[in-house]
Amino acid sequence: MICGLAGSGDGIRNRTEVSLGALRKAAALLQQGATVSEAAEKVGFDGLSYFARCFKDQFSISPSAYLLAHKGA
After folding, report:
1. Domain at 1-73: CATH architecture
2. Is residue 1 pLDDT above 90, yes or no?
3. Which residues contact 72 (CB under 8 A, 6 or more apart)?
4. pTM of structure
5. CA angle, 11 as apex, 8 and 12 as ends, to 5°?
6. Residues ≥6 apart with Cβ < 8 Å to 8
7. Start-end of H helices in the chain
8. Which long-range contacts (CB under 8 A, 24 or more apart) does 18-24 make?
9. Domain locations in the chain as residue ranges
10. CA distance 1 to 15
């Protein structure tokens, strides 16, 4: 499992597995100029904080820092 979270509530996937493909697609969307919110939504995340945590767990950088680093790339 890449990033999973037990519990329930709005925007949180309950004991689910986030695919590496979804996070890679989100990274590509950020490189293409999508906002962090847009990228998270387009790959199926309801909660922005959960998306940010999973993204950082996978890429060792927050999605907003990734966006800044790849802006105009």
Report:
1. Orthogonal Bundle (1.10)
2. no
3. none
4. 0.76
5. 40
6. 14
7. 20-31, 36-42, 48-59, 63-69
8. 18/54, 20/58, 23/54, 23/55, 23/58, 23/59
9. 1-73
10. 10
Contact in structure between 32 and 38 (CB atoms under 8 Å): no
Phi and psi torsions of 27, nearest 5°: -60, -40
The letter for the amino acid at 52 is A
Amino acid at 18: V
Tokens found for residue 23:
């996070």
- Angle (CA) 35 39 41, round 5°: 115
Contact (Cβ atoms closer than 8 angstroms) between residue 55 and residue 23: yes
pLDDT one-digit tens code per residue, 39-70: 999 999 988 999 999 999 999 999 999 999 98
Token output for 19: 């695919």
